[in-house]
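Shipment paperwork, digital attachment
Item: protein structure file
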Amino acid sequence: MISSHQNPEAIAGGARMLRRLQETAQASARAKGAKRFEGFMRTLGRQLATGDRFLKKIVAGYIAERLSGISTEEAAAATDSSLENPSG
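Attachment content:
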């Protein structure tokens, strides 16, 4: 007697079911990704619409990451002063 784990038909049926589940999960992941990307683009558009503040925020975040031990507020202040006086 052949058990179900050795039955080629059962294995093929399981593979088909797994493939359908993977396709469903993939479609769901694509939909979720598209929704997240749309939200990201909306947020980015709003941020870009603020002009210089957006750029300052990005630069301040970058500086804060590079200079450990400095707060984001301190980095923003340093960014503001460097943007106002680029030579010094």
